[in-house]
Description:
By secondary structure, this protein is an alpha/beta fold. The protein is about 50% helix and about 10% strand. It has 28 helices and 15 strands. Helix 21 links the parallel strand 6 (about 410-415) and strand 7. It is globular.
Amino acid sequence: MWGHCVSVCNPADCLYIVDDLKGLTYNIAMLRTTYRHIGWLAIGLSLLLPACSPRSQHIEAPIADTAVRPTVSGQSFWQQALLASDQQKADLYLQAASRFLASGKFIWAKRALDAVAVLPLTDNQEQAFSLLRADSLLQQHRYAEAGHLLPNWSEVSSVWPKDQQLQWCHLQAQIAQGQARLKETVVAWQRLADQYDPSSPNYQHALAMLWRALVVQPAPVLRQMRRSLIPGSVSAGWLDLALLVATQGDLNDNSTVLQAWLARYPDHPAKTFLGRKKRSLPWREVKKVALLLPLSGRFSEQGQAIRRGFYAAYYAQEKKHADSLPDVALYDTGSAPAESLAKQAAKEGASLIIGPLLKKNVEAVYSADVSIPVLALNEINKARSSWYEFALNPTIAATMIADRLAREGRWHVAVITDKTPWAQRMLDAFKKHWSDANGVVVAHLLVSDDPSRSLSASMKKLLQVSASLKRERQVARKLHKKLRFVASRREDIDAFVLFTRQQDAQQIKPFLRYYFAGDVPVYAGPSVYDRHSSVASNGDLNGIQFLSTPWQVMPNRLLPPLVADVRKVIRKSWPSLAKKQARFFAMGVDSFSLITRLPWLAVMPDLSFFGGTGILSVGDEQQIKRQLTWAQFSRGYVKPIHVAS
């Protein structure tokens, strides 16, 4: 009877596997065969069956920026469906599929949907079935297949219930965005917004998502799309506004281009956030900028990179806007106290200070309370009038990974870090954000620099492959038989999160495949990508998705024209530094852009713009918020990818 491969487990292990619905039928058979105690089956099912009655299928309307962990698991609805009458099975399987999708269990969602496919369905159930199938494909980034499953809006709007119409609109918007169909994306997000009252958070969220899809597009792409739209239409209004932001930058109340746009589109939906002003303008016209940077000393390389990025952007714009550009004065914080230089800059006629870079110097300038506006290049989490903070805080990647895991329902994760202080900061930020989302870190592996400690053994222990082998030996001894055995890994990990250097990740990813976890998604922080690496060496990283700045991973055709032009100059003029200090070159370019863009970002909190360091907006505490770019290793190359929100 052991003439085939088996996965051997003890009673407690089998009950655990049943509870997680991994091989339910097979493990029940194993219990019967191995232990000869049918009572185990009754005990296992009694532990699993929920004490709640069947509930009807209902798909809730999308809520802005939330990812709530389901209170009732998919397995609960699945088990109820197994025992339910024919009239109740479809509703319960649909509920099971919905919960499985919410927890990232796509295989079990497919099984639940397959069970529904053979049942007689009402019209409402058919519609829910279509939505769930499309949602399942969408979450796996199979956008074209998901789109083919959904009917046209004319059919949906005339027949489907309101909550299913909302779900249809939300799915269509993400499908269009995932396929990079910009025109359809704008229409879909606007259609979703139109389903809500303008005062609701969902309305604002839909418009914010629409704007986010536009703001990342370079001006040539926007112009091309604009030519295909009907003049005066709502979509044309969105494109005209996006083009103004991409090409003009300064859209404050006194901006003639903004006033012209408002006159042309007096009732446009974008006015709902153009008019939501939380602050007064931090500054108006800037005649002279003081750059406070460490141009000598320990951090001079970073300071010089920011300076070069700033001036490269300045000279690129000088050809077009020579008359409107401010004068620039440089001050070296490596040779004099930052607070003294800030006061000196104010006396010498500067109307804006950009810098300093080091946190201790930012603290000193804040305490000096200079009389002119400051855009600090680090964060001390303090705010006052005309004080803004623009930092390259790496922990934003940790919070973005946690947000994505929650959206995709991957609530149980294993984290792998190295011993660098950077990795510890990332781990701390991730765990805090993940705990707030009610996520669980089921395991943490610290990669050692000690060559005597085997990474293979550590990965084997992390994935509990050793425990599987141990159970096999125990059962073989009890049965006095040699078993044909396939080892298995633990099944409670929905995703891996890496905060390691690239050389560590190049070893970790192959071990995940070797120890049966190659199908589990892997997300990583920016340090997993080294621009000095070759395509051949990146091959071991294939499939890893990570966060980085647009400057580092996007091709020129997808970058804003100013960023693309400056990056070409930087890479040609300083090829070695261009890779080593890429983030700081990009920071210099964005610092220049913020001179004219920050005023309207500050007073219009729902707007943002696409820069070299990310998508930038202004938070409530007057900090410049950044959204990094998702990218993926594919055949050794790095490709930016769209991730649906």
